[in-house]
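Write out the 3D structure for:
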Amino acid sequence: MPKHGKNYNIVASLIEDRPYTPEEALDFFKEHPTAKFDETMEVHMRLGVDPRHADQMVRGVVVLPRGTGKKTRILVFADGEAAQIAEEAGADYVGLDDMVQKIQGGWLDFDMAIALPKVMGKVGRLGRVLGPRGLMPSPKAGTIVQPGELKRVIDEARKGRVSYRVDRTGNLHIPFGKRNFETEALLENLAAVIDSVVRAKPASAKGAYIRKAVIAPTMGPGAKIDISALTALRSILS
């Protein structure tokens, strides 16, 4: 069993063994921080899918309406006119051969990579490096785009674009803001996350879709969440 710090254990002892509403859980963690820094709030969900089957894979992209609370460092693999578009749109790093070589040399100081379809022949060499870190551009993650889509995707990343993918055990782990956000802002972001996940439900999934949910700060324990109250958050988006 992993050993936790004093603050973690204190907060864990205060969490009641019952389902919380999302608002109750957020208010609790705002009142009982487990770290000195401003932690990211995350929702963890166990889904009723078997990701071993391709038709039950759950993945998607959601733009958090209130942002993520952190700066996303964006790398765009492009050259020529597309590179100029990316630079004007505010990408932090833009290049192709030079960036591929730099990453092969061990550089990974970015949070998101975007590429044009025509350059994937070169970017594909980085699969073993970027893939395990969730940084490899892909059509399903919406990070392989045509030049005309670059500005939109970069703008979304700046505003709070988050991609997610179910892991091999059927779980999702999605950040939805910082602890110092107002509860209302966190709830709005969480509503957008849940709406996206529900819309991503595979047609082949049977029975209960979201089977268990937990809200937790990055370094803290989790509080069980009432599934009905969680899915009901979608109504605040309308």
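The two ends are 44 Å apart (CA to CA).
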